[in-house]
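Fill in residues.
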């Protein structure tokens, strides 16, 4: 079975209490430096910006293709949008704290991180709030000096507030919004759905699944997503405090094969799928979707368990354990432990490639972020196997408690393993494959798997053909 995996970084965002108000005098959502008020009415879209100080130039740090220059029209005199070296820039003749635009919901391109708008067949669409993020500049020449390179910019990024009002139903962050949706982000964003699509509600999620999705997929998805959340709930031993939002848009049968792209922001999981392979029921496609939801849902439970935002060097803890949990859940739902050997054979091969130039911890600095997923996955199954109760979920809950005591370095991971009774020598071997540059990463990971009694059976051509991971 070939699995198509979608690797994404979940960006965990602070949620605002629903009672939050924005100051009427400045037009700013509390605590933000830039607020965008978006109104969707009778099919038209407008955005009105408020800045916390008068500005002459503000540029967009997302989507350098110049889409706003083409699709946004200024409604304020003395204000224009011009693409400068890739950055769409709002230019104001005289310094001002407001600017308004008529915008066209731009849905026709695929942008790697998150499309600004994603259409649903029923006429609804999602709006990605991160597209409204702005950075201040002195003037047009100042933006030109960046030569399209964000790293040249020196300044303080304002927190972005977005308010959204629509004459159609709105779903944001697991809830149907009554009135105006308010979202605050610092460098992230979320997908907000508006439209007349049928809203699906489960215990753990609320969502909109495109009505044109092929029937076999649609039927199964509803059930599968419910089953995935139930699996997580059973393993973690608690429910999510807040339901997840699931948004699944169908982009038709036009493309050949199967295509998907997805993102997870906060508790919102967005998936856009397309392709002629979807015409017939396909077990691999189903598995790849299950895997996406199981992985992203793992982050929601990690966060609820108290594992605060972990980024940078220690990402292997979060991504690795999310991968391990997703693999288990997909294998369990399939009732097929054999798939795990294939999954971990691929993980080992990819991990080996990412660790050729340096250790797992800090791999992101070498542009080898995927090591956090693949090697991190192997580290997670080794961890579970070394614990007396073999319980990865229980371990992460204990780790969250220990980190709350104030020790947040990644070494705390190993210290918690020790406290829970894992063998000290095995912990040292595991720490070695996380922190050290390995001369033969593949062999070092095979040795660590053996030490953890996972006993991978390696064939003559170096492939894992079986591994001793019991299905939970
Ligand atoms: Zn992830």
């Amino acid at each position: 079975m070939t699995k198509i995996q979608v690797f994404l970084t979940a960006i965990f965002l602070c949620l605002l209490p629903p009672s939050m108000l924005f100051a009427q005098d400045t037009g700013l959502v509390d605590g933000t430096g830039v607020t965008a008020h978006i109104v969707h009415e009778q099919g038209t879209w407008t955005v009105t910006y408020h800045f916390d100080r008068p500005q002459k130039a503000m540029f967009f740090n997302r989507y350098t293709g110049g889409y706003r220059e083409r699709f946004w029209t200024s409604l304020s005199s003395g204000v224009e949008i011009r693409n400068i070296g890739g950055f769409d820039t709002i230019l104001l003749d005289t310094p001002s704290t407001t600017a308004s635009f008529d915008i066209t919901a731009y849905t026709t391109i695929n942008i790697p991180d998150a499309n600004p708008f994603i259409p649903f067949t029923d006429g609804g669409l999602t709006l990605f709030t991160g597209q409204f993020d702005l950075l201040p500049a002195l003037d047009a020449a100042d933006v030109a000096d960046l030569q399209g390179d964000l790293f040249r910019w020196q300044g303080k990024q304002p927190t972005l507030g977005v308010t959204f009002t629509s004459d159609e139903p709105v779903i944001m962050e697991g809830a149907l919004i009554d009135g105006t949706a308010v979202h605050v982000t610092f460098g992230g964003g979320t997908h907000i759905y508006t439209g007349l699509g049928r809203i699906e509600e489960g215990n753990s999620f609320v969502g909109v699944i495109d009505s044109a999705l092929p029937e076999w997929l649609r039927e199964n998805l509803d059930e599968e997503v419910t089953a995935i959340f139930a699996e997580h709930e059973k393993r973690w031993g608690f429910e999510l405090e807040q339901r997840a939002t699931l948004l699944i848009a169908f982009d038709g049968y036009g493309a050949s094969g199967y295509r998907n792209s997805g993102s997870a922001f906060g508790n919102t999981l967005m998936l856009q799928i397309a392709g002629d392979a979807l015409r017939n029921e396909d077990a691999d496609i189903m598995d790849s979707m299950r895997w996406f939801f199981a992985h992203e849902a793992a982050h929601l439970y990690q966060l609820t368990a108290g594992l605060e935002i972990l980024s940078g060097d220690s990402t292997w803890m979060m991504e690795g354990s999310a991968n391990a949990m997703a693999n288990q859940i997909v294998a369990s739902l399939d009732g097929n432990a054999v798939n795990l050997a294939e999954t971990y054979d691929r993980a080992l091969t990819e991990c080996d490639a990412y660790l050729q130039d340096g250790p797992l911890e800090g791999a992101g600095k070498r542009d080898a972020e995927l090591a956090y997923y693949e090697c991190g996955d192997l580290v997670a199954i080794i961890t579970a196997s070394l614990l007396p109760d073999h319980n990865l979920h229980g371990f992460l809950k204990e780790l969250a408690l220990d980190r709350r005591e104030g020790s947040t370095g990644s070494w705390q991971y190993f210290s918690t393993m020790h406290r829970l009774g894992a063998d000290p020598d095995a912990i040292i071997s595991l720490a070695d494959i996380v922190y050290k540059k390995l001369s033969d990463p593949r062999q070092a990971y095979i040795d660590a798997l053996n030490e953890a009694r996972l006993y991978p059976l390696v064939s003559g051509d170096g492939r894992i053909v079986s591994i001793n991971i019991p299905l939970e």
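DSSP finds eleven helices and 20 strands in the chain.
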